[in-house]
Design brief:
Blueprint (H helix, E strand, L loop, with lengths): L1 H25 L11 H11 L3 E7 L3 E8 L5 E3 L4 H8 L3 E3 L12 H6 L4 E8 L5 E9 L8 H37 L13 H9 L3 E10 L4 E13 L3 E3 L5 H7 L2 H22 L7 E5 L2 H5 L3 H12 L6 E6 H4 L3 H13 L3 E7 L5 H4 L7 E4 L1 H5 L5 H16 L3 E4 L5 H10 L3 E2 L10 H11 L6 H8 L1
Parallel strand pairs: 8-10, 10-11, 11-12, 12-13, 13-14, 14-15
Antiparallel strand pairs: 1-2, 1-6, 2-3, 4-5, 5-6, 7-8, 7-15, 8-9
Helix pairs in contact: 2-5, 5-15, 8-10, 10-12
Length: 464
């Protein structure tokens, strides 16, 4: 019996060492309270009508609070905490009425002394299943209505927090990798370039060498084209078609991004007008344009957009504007004002590359986005394991709760297409359906298929 107890102690010690190593790999304890968790704690507080909600991560002795609804608290002792209960059980824990659980729950009398009558807590895990923290709500009154559905809701919210934690770990590893490459070979650094220079890009603008390509966005259940994303390309007379990754950094550094951005919106509006003239059935198409951070924060953006809508005779819903999270961070007040003015024009607002930013979740309650675009990096890893799959699922669930649509980017395989439909994702885009193409090819595609694209799964079956 003593030998068994000794083996248990060793196993628990090894498990704690692994847990602490995984915690260190995230760098979560080195950061200030993280805004990306605030939306989760608010949702939890609203759903359970809780007096207090915490997201915390545990080291050897302390719970470090990363988001809190209720009385402000930064840290708590870990010993005999709810975290230790969840860790020991390796699952979510719900206690609807402490008065009836005094013999079952460790520390229940202490909870009652603090005025807590019911609580629930769910683990925050790594992709490998290691518990690093927990989401906990506390109520001063018993909650006899807590049942299996409420337990699953709490687990879903904790999974959202787990997804954000895993994103932080992935970003941290990627940043370290990039820094290592730059140290060994400066040519691999993003800011290293010899061509093009500012003068090259300025000349391209003067010669009208920039062109928009359009990639269809489709309704996954019907494969119906519901919109198009406008993507800038440089048609160089000697070098051929140049993707934006090779010149946008020059545009950003030189300030030419404002001129390119204005040109892009005007070009997209003009092309939308042309499609409406060709076929009135195409007037429901939404053409989306990406806004750079400098373009978004520039004074007068909404006035400029309104003038273009009037000039080309198109309505607000026919234009979509895609904004990345980094565009919002510099000045939250101005960003909220700009988005509000654009919303009043009826323009669709899309958060691009959702899931890659540090604080994406915290903005969703504050800013009036209509659509979340799931970054292609998650879609591309759907078949590699459970991590990316769960991240996409939690984004779709969150969007559904907040009344937003979701567009999955970068769909390239039938398996990804099947999984996204299974998860309830309504819209998507990617090479599986169509590559970005010039406007004339889009017109031909719309005419040929009457906006319904061929079934890629049927084509795959024929090939096999």
């Amino acid at each position: 019996m003593l030998e068994t107890d000794r083996e248990t102690e060793i196993s628990e010690s090894e498990g704690e060492s692994s847990r602490l190593a995984a915690l260190a790999s995230t760098g979560i304890l080195d950061s200030e309270p993280e805004p990306c968790y605030d939306a989760i704690t608010r949702l939890c507080a609203e759903y359970f009508e809780a007096d207090m909600v915490l997201i915390s991560f545990a080291d050897e002795s302390r719970l470090w609070i990363k988001s809190c609804v209720g009385p402000p608290v930064r840290e708590l002792p870990r010993k005999n905490s709810v975290f230790d209960m969840v860790l020991a059980r390796n699952r979510a824990l719900m206690v609807p009425d402490l008065a009836n659980s005094l013999e079952k729950i460790a520390g229940a009398r202490r909870f009652k002394q603090l005025g807590i009558a019911s609580f629930g807590s769910a683990p925050i895990r790594t992709a490998e299943g290691c518990i690093l923290g927990n989401l906990t709500f506390l109520c001063r009154i018993p909650r006899p209505d807590i049942g299996p559905h409420e337990l699953r809701t709490l687990e879903n919210l904790a999974e959202m927090a787990s997804s954000q934690l895993e994103l932080r770990r992935v970003r941290r590893a990627f940043t370290a990798q990039c820094e290592g490459r730059c140290m060994s070979d400066p040519k691999t650094c993003p800011n290293h370039h010899t061509w093009p220079r500012e003068d090259d890009l300025r000349l391209a603008l003067e010669r009208n060498e920039l062109v928009l390509h359009y990639q269809p966005e489709v309704e996954l259940s019907t494969r119906r084209i519901i919109g198009l994303e406008a993507l800038v390309r440089w048609r160089h007379p000697q070098r051929g078609l140049i993707p934006p990754a090779q010149f946008i950094h020059v545009a950003e550094e030189s300030g030419l991004i404002l001129q390119i951005g204005d040109w892009g919106i005007a070009e997209a509006c003009g092309q939308t007008q042309e499609w409406c003239k060709r076929d009135s059935r195409w007037s429901s198409l939404r053409v989306c344009v990406n806004l750079s951070a400098r373009q978004f924060m520039r004074e007068g953006l909404a006035d400029h957009v309104e003038a273009l809508l009037l000039q080309y005779g198109i309505s607000g819903p026919q234009l979509g504007l895609e904004v990345t999270e980094s565009s919002l961070i510099p000045n939250m007040g101005i960003a909220l004002t700009v988005l509000g003015r654009l919303r009043r024009l009826g323009v669709s607002l899309l958060m691009d590359d959702f899931g890659t930013g540090y604080s994406s979740l915290s903005y969703l309650h504050s800013f009036p986005f209509d659509v979340l675009k799931i970054d292609r990096s998650f879609v591309g890893r759907m078949n590699d394991g459970d991590q990316a799959f769960q991240i996409i699922r939690t984004i779709i669930d969150l969007a559904r709760v907040l009344g937003m649509d979701v567009v999955a980017e970068g769909i390239e395989t039938c398996e990804q297409y099947r999984l996204l439909r299974q998860l309830g994702c309504r819209f998507g885009q990617g090479f599986l359906f169509a590559k970005p193409m010039i406007a004339a090819d889009v017109t031909a595609l719309l005419r040929l298929h009457d906006r319904i694209l061929p079934d890629p799964e049927a084509a795959e079956t024929l090939r096999s």
